[in-house]
Design brief:
This protein is an all-alpha fold. Helix content is about 65%, strand content about 0%. The chain has five helices and no strands.
Length: about 100
C-alpha cells in the first residue's frame, strides 16, 4: 500500500521529469490514485511551497534564500517590467543573459 508521502513524492517526481508519453501516463495514474485515496479539497498539499536555496552571499541572494520561490519571482517580474520601461537596453541584456544559460 502506498503512503500519502510516497504518492506525493511520486507525483512531484513525474511533474519535474521530462515530458513524455510514459511520464504523463504515470502522472495520470498517480493523480487517479491520489483522488481515490484522498479528498480533492486536500490536493493543494501536492504543490508544496518551493523554497529558494542558498546560492551565494550577495545582499540579494541572502535576502531571497529560504523564501517562497513563486512570491520572489512575482517581485522579480515587477522589477523586470519596470526595468523594461526605464532602461530597455539593460532589460534586453538581462534577457539575453538568461537565454544564454
Amino acid at each position: 500500500m502506498l503512503t500519502k508521502t510516497e504518492l506525493i513524492n511520486a507525483i512531484r517526481e513525474c511533474e519535474n521529469a521530462p515530458v513524455s508519453y510514459q511520464n504523463c501516463q504515470r502522472l495520470a495514474t498517480f493523480y487517479g490514485i491520489y483522488d481515490h485515496m484522498f479528498p480533492p479539497e486536500r490536493q493543494s498539499e501536492i504543490r508544496a511551497e518551493k523554497v529558494i536555496d542558498d546560492y551565494g552571499k550577495s545582499d540579494f541572494l541572502l535576502s531571497v534564500g529560504g523564501k517562497n520561490a513563486e512570491k520572489v519571482w512575482n517581485v522579480m517580474d515587477e522589477l523586470m517590467s519596470t526595468l523594461q520601461a526605464v532602461n530597455p537596453k539593460l532589460y534586453d541584456g538581462v534577457l539575453r543573459k538568461i537565454d544564454d544559460l
